[in-house]
Amino acid sequence: MAARNAGGAARPGGPNRTCQFKLVLLGESAVGKSSLVLRFVKGQFHEYQESTIGAAFLTQTVCLDDATIKFEIWDTAGQERYHSLAPMYYRGAQAAIVVYDITNQESFQKAKNWVKELQRQASPNIVMALAGNKADVANKRTVEYEEANAYAEDNALLFMETSAKTSMNVNDIFMAIAKKLPIGPAQGEPTGTVDMNQPQQQQKGSCCK
Amino acid sequence: MSTSGSLEKEDWLDLGDLNNAANFTLDDALNDTESLNDPLLDEQFLFDGDFGSVSNLEDSASTSDNQPLVYKLDASFVIQPHQLISNQILKNEKKSGRVIAVAERNGWIAVVTSKGQLHLFDLNGNLNQFHRGDETMGGASCVTFSLDGKYLAIGLQKGAIKIMTIDNKLYHIINEGGQPGQGIVQVLYTKDNHTVLTIDNGGSFYECKINRQWLQKRKDSLRCHVSGCNGEIVAMKLLPGDVIALLSVHKLIFYVIKPRGGQILGVFPTKYEFQFPPACSYWLGCPKSDNNNSSSPLNSLYTSELRDFRICISRGHKISVLRLHANNFFSKKRRATVINQFDVPSPLVNLHWMSTHVVAGIDAMGAVWLIDPEKKTAKKQELEDLQLIFSTPILKGSATGGKVSEAVKAVAEYACYQSVTSATSTSERFIVLAHDGLKYLEKVHEWQQLESYKERNDDISAALYLLDVCRDKVRASEEFKRESRNLLAEKTSKLLTETVSGIVGGPLSDLQSHYRKYIRVILKVCVTGGLLEFLYTTCWDRLSMDSISKTVFLEHLDEYVLDGALIDPPTPLVNEYLQHLASEGHFSQFQSAVVRFPIHTLDLHTVMSICKQNSIYDGIIYVNNKALNDYITPLEDMLAEMSEFAHRGVFSDSEQILGNKVLVYLNCCLAGMAYPFGQLDGDNQKRVPLETFRCISSIRGKEEKESEEQYPYLKLLLQFDPQQFLNVVSTCADVELFQLDNRLQRFVDTIGQVCVNMKCELSLIHYLALLVQLSERALIALPTEPIQDAVITLLKMSPWDQIGTEDAILGGLYHATPDDKRRIIRAAQNPMRPVILSFLYLSDRKFEELIKCYLDSENKEVYSVIGGILKGGELTVQESAELRSYIMSIMETLYRIDGWLCANLINDHFREVIVTMAENEEEKRKQIFPVLAGIAQLRKYANQPSFCNDNELDEKLFGIVFEGICKRWPSWMPTSENPESVDHQLISMFPFWLPLAANTDFCLNIAVGNEYCVRTVVRLLEARHHLERAFDLLFEQLEKNKENDERMGELNFISSKVKSYPSTAEWLDETMKFCSRQSTKDDNSDRMMRVFQFISERAAQVGEDSEKQEKIDESLRVMCRQILATGTRYAKQLVDQLLDSPSFSGSSFIDNGGLIMDILSSCDYEAEIYQEMIYLIREENLTFAQKLELEVSRRAPLMYNSQCITCEQPMNKSGYVFRCGHFQHIECSTSIERICTCDGIADRLVVPREKPDKPNKRDIFKNWESKLNCRVLPK
């Protein structure tokens, strides 16, 4: 598992490699994490999205020029009672999207807490993005773009304001993350033969297979 | 004769040089056919297994879904004919004779023929030497090389041995290699290369030392170890350590040849299936070498390290494997151990041990068997049958006139020792001589097996084979095992490629079958072969691309998921699998699967949604427990769901499942265990039990509404299944949680409070049981008050629905009875709980109070209670006296409650009361009548015809009973509307009580007073000897009833039914019975005739109804016979009367012939009886008459002396003359017995007079019961 999460062995046979990354969505309850994922994975939007229990798992593949990125997305529940679950999902994740609701200042504060927690607890190489969701209701905005952007810049976060409803920036933010993820041959990349005797061995650095 | 030495066995078997040598000879050992207990070996054999178990390897190949994945192994051996040699020997068969035997050494193959010729080939099949035999010496029978390969020895059928060199063609002949006149059947070189051992067909075993200078024609020394007359050696084999295995007809002997004889190391019996020759082969492992599979048989003979020295012995269907302990050969320690013994399906005739675990066997039909001496398996190989050349004619002695031993003859049919020889270089090959030429039989190597699969493009079998090699399920060399992992990975990868390449075309079902065929194998190989990573990544990625292959893959995952074989599976796979199960509706599998995956791989949202939608509580519990570390929420949720149905008495299956799950979960949580199995971690182990306890014992429950009742969860659990819930409490009672802060006590008290408030009988019962249990385990204090509360609540409930309530209360009270029992007693009195009261009062020995309780409620149990106290109460004298006094005082009440039970009580314990029961007042008599009636009945049962052994009092008491019945006083006795029932009741008492009833006229007078007691009156009159009055009364009844009785025709003499008015038939029946009873009386015939006349008259009056007429006739005939049975006094009148009867007079002889014959025969019989009686009297008296006559005519006895024996005076006064011949005056006699004073010393001249004969007393009733055998018909 660790090998896979850390990026399994690269599959030989050309420049178009398939890479698998674990991505986790964090944020306060009802900011639109599930809607964002649903829009990205299935292209759908439900006006009344049911509250997530624990965490939901989805996968989506995006193609870059030289690689295919397969996201293993963990959409975590924002309710406080599930907070304790989060470490289980962001542990070993290569990417994280911290989502807040631009109409809810409190959710932005909470997002900042998540960023702090990720910086403290998650992998040091984790690619983090900050998504200000519900951009379609910008008239009710309470979190200014500039404020959030500044915060993102300060913390080296990718930042986009998104709208799951209108699909604004949804794919873009994922694509931006994909592009920022380390795609390339790992140290000691296997050369075509698979050593089945050591299936569980840890291979560092590689995200592709 | 060119032998040297004598045949005297003591010259050869020098056993005295070793202290521990056997004290018996080889001949002795061979001759000992009855007792095969060799003290050196057999006694110490340890049998690891029994004969009779045969197992074969699974060899059917199938890839069907329902069958296990199996593959087919090819034969473990291969037969390779040596074409060149075969062609040569077959081609020249006519010239050189039929090939008989073969031997191989150092690249040379020697074949001998029936014409005594030798062909020596090199391994390429080139004929190197040809030696023409001398036909006068007979054909060859066997051939062998010396161990150094320089010499050849050929045994000949006429007894000679030919020794040859293979380089310079010199040869030497020993004319008689065995017993004179016997053919040689086997020759063997020993390690010195100059000694030849021979066996002849007489069963003899010889040792022949070849002189090294044998070309100088010196004599060779030949000595006999076993002569044919004493032993029956049929074959031999040279074993490592200079041991020779001698195979006799009964046993295998391990023998060592010594300079001056030999020594037996041990004997192993082979005493079964004599028609098959015994065979043996050895294996000498090389512990230092890893690869010991191809050790050289030749080298093993020279090795001195005999560690893994095993020998396999076969005889027919039996195989034995022995381990020889070479170090102990010359010591007293155990020299061999039986490792295995087992059966093979086919009788074997030859054996060859090829490698550590492989023995090749050849059966009588030539089939080759793969035998695993460790696993005790035998598998027939799919090879052509080897048509071995048997040495039957040689063993049967066809060249020497058939003079062979019986033993050799017995095994001759299947003996083929000479046609099988091991290769020098490797044990994995041996050479056989068959009718169709010379062949090699070689073991197939694992690589060859794999190559074979490859040639057949059978990757599935190859993968499964490699998997078995990896898992040590199939024996393989270490080298192959090392390679097998990589080979397996390659093969699996190839299988995956084949899988995803699909099929070229065809229906969808073919594609599904294709996927199933391969995916099953891939899954098995990957999961069990340690290729999980390959499975999770490459396999899953590629198979999940196609929806069909993905579905097939997920379908076949079930068994591995349930086995927990999928270690750390990837999240996409887990969630696809679970969603697949949910979409297919396999929720049971879903429930089982979800708890087997690591929590971090689960899509909690989906899993919880599916679990909630489908009530999969295990999943909910698992997610809550593992992900959220929440143990209470699922419990509360389940309890909330339970509250919907727990109040109902009957539950659906799903409700029952939920309830049971709650109880199991509760048990786990309270005990600090993980659900459904395992242990909680350290922190949770303390936290979870406490939280669970607080949850279920909370006063308000989850919602905490003020209006709701208290302890909702406890109430709910008690409502659902109090027994199981309290069992959970009991099971968890000793966990740490309950031991702290007196929690258990408080919890139990709370449960008790809830139970009492619920007023649920079942809950209270089990609560009492719980209290007793916990108290006995010293987990709670003596629960007096809770028990009291529960008991009182139960006692107040009425009626009880549960059968165990009373027992539960008694159990509780027995365990802890409160000091002040008044509350309980009060509760037990209303409603009355006799058993509980009995327990309470008896434990305090308050007998009177207990009886009073019963009396107050007029409970009939009072009698049994009194009886019980008196019988088992272990009363003291004072207690007994007081109790009896008290009971006497309440006796009148006891009379009243139940007469029958009271009678029993009085009869058992208060007999003295009976005398006081003879009351005069009618009211009192009425009161005691039921009791007395009961006592009368009991006495009747006990056959005691008295109430108190006082006749007068008995009459009086019975009078009360009689009067009561007659006057129908109320009692326990059954009553009826039929007025005659009283008569029947009285009659039913009479057989026993009649004497008492008939003592006075009291009963008769009372009976007469009741018009319906005619029968009773008749019986009483009869008993009081008023027979005429009795008969008249009966006849009166006949007359009275004849007018209104239309049922005369139905003369059924035995009427059992009680009718309101008895018919004439019934009275006639009574009358006839009366007559029968009085048949001995003289005047009875008169009565009978009266009855007969009555009947015949009635018959005449009845109309012409033929059916009725027939019945009357029949009754008349019966009457006739009865009258005649009393004598022939009325025979004439009877006949007259009959003749008057129209039906008789007008009938044919056939109809009434029998009756006429009866009349005549009865007359005849009477006459005959008289006659016989006269004869008898005459006969009996004849003897007496004769004796009397003799006595009369007898002389008077001689008197010895006419003087008195006492006073010696003459016979001038009256005196006695004694039989002894003496006389004595009467006045002189002092003996009262009138015996002579001579003391019986009689004069021999006097003839004593005999005593007068008195007829012996005879018991005339002795044969009373036996039949007289009188003739009743005329002669």
Automatic annotation (TrEMBL), chain A:
Subcellular location: Early endosome
EC number: 3.6.5.2
Gene Ontology biological process terms in this record: protein transport
Keyword Hydrolase appears in the UniProt entry: yes
Catalytic function, reaction form: GTP + H2O = GDP + phosphate + H(+)
Gene3D superfamilies found in the cross-reference section: P-loop containing nucleotide triphosphate hydrolases
GO molecular function annotation: G protein activity; GTP binding
Region span, Disordered: 188-209
This protein's name: small monomeric GTPase
Species: Caenorhabditis remanei (Caenorhabditis vulgaris)
Gene (name only): Cre-rab-5
UniProtKB/TrEMBL annotation, chain B:
InterPro entries: Vps41/Vps8, Vps8_central_dom, WD40/YVTN_repeat-like_dom_sf, WD40_repeat_dom_sf
Name of the molecule in the record: Vacuolar protein sorting-associated protein 8 central domain-containing protein
Domain of life: Eukaryota
Matches recorded under Gene3D superfamilies: YVTN repeat-like/Quinoprotein amine dehydrogenase
Annotated coiled-coil segments of the chain: none
Organism of provenance: Caenorhabditis remanei
Domain Vacuolar protein sorting-associated protein 8 central: 552-730
A Pfam family hit: Beta-prop_VPS8
Family: Belongs to the VPS8 family.
GO BP annotation list: endosomal vesicle fusion; protein targeting to vacuole
GO cellular component terms attached to this protein's record: HOPS complex; late endosome
